[in-house]
Each structure stands twice: as C-alpha cells, then as structure tokens.
C-alpha cells in the first residue's frame, strides 16, 4: 500500500508539472544558455543532450535507489536507453532549516549543468551525459561511475584501507581538476566547496570531482569577487569569512585541508569546530615547528606501510602546511601546488 501511495504521489507531481513542460523547458533552457555563455564567453562547443521528465521517471523507477544526498537534493541510479546512469535531482524541502530559496536552487542546478559540461574534457570530473529541463529545477544525468564517496573511505569506522599511493593519486587528480577551473576559462572559476563529500572514487579507483552548484567566476581583470558565504565546516577559508571576498586562494585553503584529511584521515586535526574556522590554522601553527610532525599529522595506517617514502611524505606535509596559512597571500598558487604534487611518484 505504501508503494502504491508513493507512486501515486510521484505521478500526481509530474502530471501537474507536465502541464507546464513547454514553459519549464524554455525558461530552464534559456537560463542554461545564459550560464554557458557567461562561463565560457560564448566559446563552448559541447552539446548537452536533453532527456524528458518521463524518460527519467521511468529510468529511475520513480527515483528509487538513491545513492547519495547532495546539498540541493539527491543522486539516484537508473537505466536509460540500456545504459546505467546517475540522475541528480534538485529539490527544496519546506521547513528544512538547511533549505534554500527557489531562486538559489534553480541557479545552482543550472550552474552545475553548465560547468559540469564545460569540464567534461577533464578526466577527473564525473562525466555528464545530459540533462532534463522539464522539471521545476533542471536535473543532471551522469554516466554511472559505480562509485564510493571519498568521505566514506576516510571515516574512522571504515575497514577499507586507503593506501598512501591511492591518497597521493587523489591529491594529484583533484589538484588537476581545480587547476583546470582556475586556468582553462576566460576568467578563473572558484569551486568553493571542496571536501571529501564532493569527490568520488569510481570502480577503477579513479578520483572524480562533482557538484559545481556553488562555483563563481572572477570578473574580468579582477583577483577577487564579493559574495555570500558558503559554509563548509572544517574547510572554510577564514579570510573568506572575514572579508566576504572569494579568491583563487579560497580553493587553495580548502585543498590544503583536503590534503590534511588525506594525511590524517578524520583524526583530531580535521575535526574543526563549526564556530571556529581558524581551528585548522591554529592546529597547524601549534605543530608546524615540532619534530613530531609525522606522529601529530600522519595517519598511523600510512606510516605502517613498508613502501612509504618518508622524504616524499615530508615534502607533501610541507605543501599542505603552506596551503592552510591564515592569510591568502602566504598560500601558494594552485599552479605551483599542482606542479609539485604531480612530481611525486
């Protein structure tokens, strides 16, 4: 009975939206085109395949099989035209303290589709195969990577061993993806929400970044842009909080915290107080000159690996500590970081 009720609820919802399909398609399509032009200055040449709402409802069995909850909704697995897919739906939950305005969710959905498509040539981004403009908020269709969220591997209760070689591969891959955002477009695009919940490891253990809902591009000729705070506990640039200005160094800080997580797992160093964005900075300053950096910063699972090169590990720590400096001017550029990390074997 519950199943029938659920299906009827879904069908009623989409029957109502079917009446507005032409308007939704035009409105969302127009917004998507504007976003593509904005981020690429009109130079994009990647077609985005459009699917109907009915196709996605059928493909996902009324959006059953949810595999991940995202900021604005959820991701579910399905089969579309004989191909396994991931469908990202954007929703607004009334009464939810974390809910956003309709405008914010629509803007985030359109931005996610546009930037994901523009990033599709980068192997370290979850590949988009199309979208659906017939819902209130456009839906995004990915190829099915048969993935695991990186955060799950770093959970203290996880019994899966993430080797140092795998962690280094993640650092290299995500550095390349963020560098691509900063350098491959007419003006740098800042990711802003980098954390292990937005990184997957596919069935080949290849790291892939996803969710571009909160990216923002710098104005032409400018090094910063003022915008509302996007709060990511533990990964929040203290300089961004105090000034409200987003810069490329905002991503550098978040990337530095990600490196700390790769070094330390979800240990004490990364359990940042949500009310104290400088928790990481203070911890680093307390330990940066101590002789027991390995013991204080590095996950014992890494140190127990016989093949780990301690000289390489120390160099990795040094890069990490530079990234999480309190002031952006004291952090390296993403290009410098990527060059050094990519040299590690």
Describe this structure in words.
By secondary structure, the chain is an alpha+beta fold. The strands form four sheets. It has a five-stranded antiparallel sheet with strand order 1-2-3-5-4, sandwiched between helices. Helix 6 packs antiparallel against helix 8 and helix 6 runs antiparallel to helix 13. The longest helix is centred in the N-terminal third of the chain and has 20 residues. It is globular.
For the record, give the distance between the C-alpha atoms at the N and C termini, rounded to a whole number.
57 Å
Total DSSP E strands: 12
Number of helices: 13
Most strands sheet: 5 strands, antiparallel
What order do the strands of the largest sheet run in, or round the barrel if closed?
Answer: 1-2-3-5-4
Mean of residue pLDDT? 84
Helical content (DSSP H or I, runs of 4+): 40-55%
The value of Rg in angstroms is 21 Å
Strand/helix succession: HHHEEEHEEEHHEEEEEHEHHHHHH
Estimated structural class? alpha+beta
Strand content: 5-15%
Q: Which residues form runs of ≥5 with pLDDT under 50?
A: 1-12
The general outline is: globular
Quaternary organisation of the protein chains:
single chain
